[in-house]
Design a protein that fits this description.
Elements lengths: L4 H8 L14 H19 L10 E8 L5 E8 L3 H25 L7 E6 L2 H26 L8 H8 L1
Parallel strand pairs: 2-3
Antiparallel strand pairs: 1-2
Amino acid sequence: MYVGLREYIVRSNPYITEVKYMRKNSNKNKRINGEVMKVISEALRYSKDPRISPMTSVMDVEVAPDLKTCKVWVTVMGNDEDRARTAEGLKSAAGYVRSTLAKELNMRYTPEIRFIMDDSIEYAINMSKMIDEVTAKDNEARAARGEDIEESSEDEEFSEED
């Protein structure tokens, strides 16, 4: 008969009476992630560390199912120097943020926080610029050949369907 890992640990160790794990994508974990995100955002907003840029946003939070660790994805609008200073400031402010989290939320464990710099917004902005440049060059090429350039926006497309 197949015995899962969880059952094997419980059966093989006499000191463990019960092992409970929260699933990664459960509703409880999603609620905890949302609350932790709110508290961390507020803590960073009112942080007095001058290295943390005021243009810092918490993009996502992932608390581990055992509530021991927490990954926080942060984005900083600005140049590379601002990002480097903010990363250094966040690393030193992790203890303050963790203590604020412990005060604000009543959880079994206060997770250890790890900040990760997220460049997805900047990547999206650069991709959008590149798409606009290609579209402009394509329109110029069509105009040079004498073709009609059809400018259509998404709003017009949706209004025609209704």
